[in-house]
Amino acid sequence: MGDKSRLEEALERGDFVITAEICPPRGTDTRGFLEKARLIRDRVVAANVTDNQRAVMRLSSLACSVLLLREGIEPVFQMTCRDRNRLAIQSDIMGAWTLGVRNILALTGDHVSHGDHREAKAVFDLDSVQLVHTIDLLNHGKNLKGRELRGGTGFYIGAVVAPEAEPFGPEWIKFEKKIDAGARFFQTQAVFDMDRFKAFFDDAERLGAKILAGILLLKSARMAHFLNNNVPGVNVPQDLIEELEGSTDELEKGIEIASRQLRELKGFCHGAHIMAIGQEESVPRIVDLA
Fold first, then answer.
1. Exposed site from 72, 152, 180, 241, fewest CB < 10 Å?
2. pLDDT of residue 41
């Protein structure tokens, strides 16, 4: 249904595709959000809009996706299973389509116990595989009950995978399930072990999925230690931590490391997804240095 997104066209053409993510504001003042969006507009094919990232209440991902469209930036509308039941999920997905959004990324979502409203009721009516299946059904003009819709959707469906997860077996099984459910492109968790990622990429490519490797901007050695201790599936190697610790400007060193990773990925991968987490103004430098 409908036209293909620029993201889908670029990946199908075989371009090396760069996406990045922008976090909506904790309120209705969108000036900072739009400034960051304009900074990366010419460096990315599409920009992800996070959905109450880390279970912290923020402006709606759907509203911010529409703001990006107005700026001429193609959004990747992120949707988690945490906050909505299957009625609201289907309703919001169709709403996004009618408002012009063409890419969607299906996520489980961080549990509310990690966020700023810990007394909130987590929903998780569907999991991320079921969410991909739901979007695929809507793309085929049917709802979750199998009922024909008066007009369906035509999303380019994305999902996430953590190539450095330990143990990796369950992660691979879930990855295959997401492909079977209808996921066409994947943005990965942060990748640091390039040899291991290359092996994952070769296996994944055989299944026909497009893979955008996650590049996480390390702002400091302290941040690297925090990630290793608190974020499952992320493992910052000791040599990179030492590189950060030994530099006079840790952020600058982090930008250099990210651009080095980007350069390496250009040799074999379909693309990269840059996660700058509040430091979006560094994305153009990472891209240009690479």
1. 72
2. 94
For the entire predicted model, the pTM comes to: 0.95
Single-letter amino acid, residue 191: V
Amino acid in the structure at residue 215 = I
The DSSP result for 226-276, as a single string, is HHHHH-TT----HHHHHHHHT-S-HHHHHHHHHHHHHHHHTTT-SEEEEE-
User: Using CA atoms, how far apart are residues 178 and 184, in angstroms rounded to an integer?
Assistant: 9
- Give the domain ranges of the chain: 6-289
User: pLDDT per residue over 164-182, tens digit each?
Assistant: 998 999 999 999 999 999 9
**Above 90 in pLDDT, residue 3?**
no
Long-range contacts made by residues 257-261, C-beta under 8 angstroms, separation at least 24?
257/218, 258/215, 258/216, 258/217, 258/218, 258/286, 259/285, 259/286, 259/287, 259/288, 259/289, 259/290, 260/290, 261/191, 261/192, 261/194, 261/213, 261/215
CATH among 3.20.20.220, 3.20.20.70, 1.10.540.10, 3.40.605.10 for 6-289: 3.20.20.220
